[in-house]
Amino acid sequence: ENITNISSFRKLRKNCIKWFASATDVPSKTITNVEPADLLRLQRLRNIGISAHIDSGKTTLTERILYYTGRIKSIHEVRGKDGEGAKMDSMELERERGITIQSAATYCNWNWEGHGDYNINIIDTPGHVDFTIEVERALRVLDGAVLVLCGVSGVQSQTITVDRQMRRYNVPRISFINKLDRVGANPFTIVEQIRQKLRITAAAIQIPIGLEDNLKGIVDLIKWKAVYNEGGRGEKVIEKEIPEDLIELALEKRQELVENLADVDDQIAEIFLMEEKPTSEQLMDAVRRATIANKFTPVLMGSAFKNTGVQRVLDAVCAFLPNPAEVHNTALDISRKEAKVDLIPYSKNPFVGLAFKLEDGKYGQLTYVRVYQGLLKKGSFITNSKTSKKVKVPRLVRMHSNEMEDVEEVGAGEICAMFGVDCSSGDTFTDGTLHYTLTSMFIPDPVISLSITPKVKDSANFSKALNRFQREDPTFRASYDTESKETIISGMGELHLDIYVERMRREYNVDCVTGKPQVAFRETVTSMAKFDYTHKKQTGGAGQYGKVIGYIEPLQELNDEDEEQLPAFESRVVGGHIPSNFIPAVEKGFLDGLEKGSLIGHPVKNVRFVLEDGAHHAVDSSELAFRLAALYAFREAFLKAKPVILEPIMDVSITAPLEFQGTVIGNLNKRKGTIIDTEVQEDYFVVNAEVSLNSMFGYSSDLRSATQGKGEFSMEYKDHRPVSPNVQEELINEYKKRKAAEKK
After folding, report:
1. Can you tell me the distance from the alpha carbon of 665 to that of 723, in angstroms, rounded to the nearest whole number?
2. Which residues contact 362 (CB under 8 A, 6 or more apart)?
3. Where is the Tr-type G domain (predicted)?
4. In the beta sheet, which residues pair with residue 50?
């Protein structure tokens, strides 16, 4: 506002670039054509996700955030009796069940006192493990996160999963201990759980004033003030002096904060060793540095439902989480053999964006995009890096749950959505001048399958629904089984598939009948077996001839610590006994064999095929002959290599009142579960166990009846392990009977 001539503008611009380069560790040579307004916009921008275990209060917290930032005029609860439901749970099913099924995006402005307005893009994610892909793709494009924990239950199974996803994408987080108004709330136990179970340095930067029914406010340990929420909905934030009876506890917890920060921040360590007291500004800066470096998580406290401590969470988002320029994002340059290149989030740079989520709306396909650099403009042409197709952006919107706001352009670092662009989830878009591709997100394999049949045959909507759901959700798969003549749907759990069957009925008017759940079994070998197989067929004229010699052996699954893994297929043929142009055909034959095992017809995993020798015929040998030779050789050797059936093992976490502990553990033993550990807290207990998925069907209703509806459980896929010999025999006999029945 005070710029009066061109020289003072240049001076301001130079100072901004100098400051921004030092603040974000971006070499100043990469910052060219940067406008001060663009720098300021980035500095005031936050892209955050709200993640947690199911029922920790994520959506309730988001509802309060939207209310306090003025995005909504009134508050509605998740299981509201007014028929409205929370803003971010826009799907009818979500409001009925009181759970989040799809991640929802919104944005808001927050005036951080003394620091100005900040723009915050928020994605509220589901807590149930069945919808884990929603968390996965949200964290792929976000710069920071708020990890919500229940003040009673603390770190639960899905909290650990979310923590793992945050680490996968290097997402810094602040932690918010919610529900301190609940009976049995103990925030300092939860802080210790974060340190022990999530293995990250954590310390409280607030302490509560009272607990349970007496929760009145919080004490800010950095600013050294007591903070109260007043007004009908807690919209007035009042700062007062710390109550006398809390001074001692506050001093102890502030010292604990300094000690924990000294472990991860050099500047605080120096102050600590000099036995000096850090100032509020020094603590704020240290918390920010350590949080952005993923070495520390500040822990905030409150109760979203009771409107306590939410505004301080917004202040912490602005104070401690990074802006887009402080996050190191890279792409692969296809034109330079996929060399890594840094993405600099300035609007003057060429456009690069990632389509991370698709939805089928009433106006066509809605594609959610994170803009990593450059500008995305309505009416502009962008290029899909995967298909090299040039497409026009007909409509650009900002999302507010299920509502939209049309915009003309979106700057670097922002999240938006566009209509009318045909693409897949995970596609990279550029302006056409760059040949960049962004690494895609991690997609877990489905663990459960169901056969599904529409009640009305030849329903066009049935296949339309399946195609749409597969495009929207990469963990949902649909296939047609030619043997059983049934459509098979696969997903992450019973609830996951149940939701899609229900959506099919509501959104497409297709009533379906589902069969018994099928487990995603796998087959593998446990020892080495040699093969020496000749495929010979004479049909008049040129025949088929191919001979393969070698062995198959077990292949260890790759762990995170392993540097490299042996290839699943290896050729050691020398001397031209098998011409090199037929080697790929041998590999294809091996891969064909992996698709369907000989024991129960399920895919084969963790097997290595080594081709040592063979023979060919000058006329009769062909790619088909060697492909078939490898397939039959593999099947023959597979049965000699002591094959076993693998079943998915689930990590199960059960929470129930203490009086039902014996019943719950007895039920787990009946299902052949392995108890890993049991934790007793106040009047309830938590048991963690490993149970095969095959034994977990119907467990939900069993647990409800055993605990008078007070017990709850969650489960997550862990790994595949061999079934017991008697179960293997049963499965093989069942498969043989089914095959015999099909032949009749």
Report:
1. 22
2. none
3. 43-325
4. 124, 146
Which value, in Å, is the radius of gyration of the alpha carbons in the chain? 29
The residues, any chain, with a CB within 8 Å of residue 473's CB and separated by 6 or more, are 133
CB within 8 Å of 160: residues ≥ 6 apart? 197, 198
Instruction: Give the DSSP letter string of 249-297.
Output: HHHHHHHHHHHHHHHH-HHHHHHHHTTPPPPHHHHHHHHHHHHHTTSEE
Distance of CA 645 to the CA centre of its chain: 29
Residue 200 gets which letter from DSSP?
S
Query: Among all chains, which residue has been given the structure tokens 């049309």?
Result: 406
Which tokens is 380 given?
């502009």
| Chain center to CA of 117 | 30
pTM, entire model? 0.69
For tokens 């406290």, name the residue.
Answer: 301
The sign of the dihedral angle between the CA atoms of 668, 669, 673, 675 is positive
**Do the beta carbons of residue 69 and residue 110 sit within 8 Å?**
yes
Nearest residue to 495 via CA among 697, 708, 702, 705: 697
Burial class (CB in 10 A: 0-12, 13-18, 19+), 316: buried
Residue 33 makes CB contacts below 8 A (sequence gap 6+) with 346, 348
Q: Give the β-pairing of 45-52 and 144-150.
A: parallel
Question: Which tokens go with 322?
Answer: 């990074």
pLDDT of 563: 41
Contacts of residue 248, defined as CB under 8 A and 6 or more positions apart, other chains included, come to none
The strand pairing partners of 174, in sequence order, are 146
465 contacts: CB under 8 Å, gap ≥ 6: 503, 504, 507, 508, 510
How far from 221 is each of 211, 466, 515, CA to CA, in Å? 17, 53, 57
Coil, helix or strand at residue 631? helix
| 3 state SS of 228 | strand
Q: How far is it, in rounded angstroms, from Cα 548 to Cα 660?
A: 61
- Residue positions counted in the chain: 744
Phi, psi of 670 (to 5 degrees): -65, -30
d(CA 341, CA 545): 49
> What DSSP state is assigned to residue 542?
S
pLDDT digits (tens, 9 = 90+) for 545-571: 889 999 999 887 655 444 445 668 888
Q: What is the pLDDT of residues 15-29, one digit of tens each?
A: 544 444 444 443 333
C-beta separation of 674 from 743 below 8 A: no
Tokens of 137: 């793709």
DSSP 8-state assignment for residue 535: E
User: Is 39 a residue whose pLDDT tops 80?
Assistant: yes
Q: Rounded CA gap, 551 and 737, in Å?
A: 31
List all residues 6 or more positions away from 134 whose beta carbon is below 8 Å from its beta carbon. 101, 102, 103, 125, 126
